[in-house]
Amino acid sequence: MNTNTDIGTIAKAVVRRNTEQVQGGGNFALFDELFADDFIDHTPQPGGTPDKAGARALYGALRTAFPDFHAVIHWQAVEGDRVTTYKTYHGTHEGAVFGLAPTGRKISFDTVDVMRVRDGRIVEHWGVAHLYSLLQQLGALPALLPAA
């Protein structure tokens, strides 16, 4: 039995459950099980807090703005206790987000994130989301930058 492989397999499953069942399914009871109380988000969204409460608030805000919010996971890679995931989020803009009134538009945006898992719980997060693309789709930014 390779302990490193087992840790990676468990970590990958935890991150996938978060993506599919919490973010995509709105299962906030599972959120409380999957996230450690000492969770740290190294890249919180503007106005958010870098802790478990901040992550929960972000997930709640996304589910309110996009009730059908879900991700398609393209790939995951594991290195030790860290899981890197490349995914595309999808949803329909039915609630306010970033101060923007609902548009009814279908959206999608790519994200790459890394989550560190300890004892079956998510303890750290680093992520990059293509929010510029999201804001373009919602009509808050121009589709193209002006010519120089």
Could you please describe the fold and organization of this structure?
With 148 residues, this protein is of the alpha+beta class. The protein has a single domain (3-137), classed as Nuclear Transport Factor 2, Chain: A. The protein is 33% helix and 34% strand. A 5-stranded mixed beta sheet has the order 1-5-4-3-2. A hairpin with a 2-residue loop joins strand 2 and strand 3 (82-92). The termini are far apart. The mean pLDDT is 94.
Beta strands, count: 5
Structural class: alpha+beta
User: How would a textbook summarize the main sheet?
Assistant: 5 strands, mixed
Tally of structural domains: 1
Question: Into which percentage range does the β-strand content fall?
Answer: 25-35%
Brief overview:
By secondary structure, the chain is an alpha+beta fold.
What would the keywords be for this entry?
4 helices, Nuclear Transport Factor 2, Chain: A, alpha+beta, Cyclase_SnoaL-like, globular, five-stranded mixed sheet, single chain, 148 residues, 33% helix
Question: Mind sketching the topology for me?
Answer:
Elements (H helix, E strand, L loop, with lengths): L2 H21 L4 H7 E7 L10 H14 L4 E10 L2 E11 L13 E13 L2 E9 L1 H7 L11
Parallel strand pairs: 1-5
Antiparallel strand pairs: 2-3, 3-4, 4-5
Helix pairs in contact: 1-2
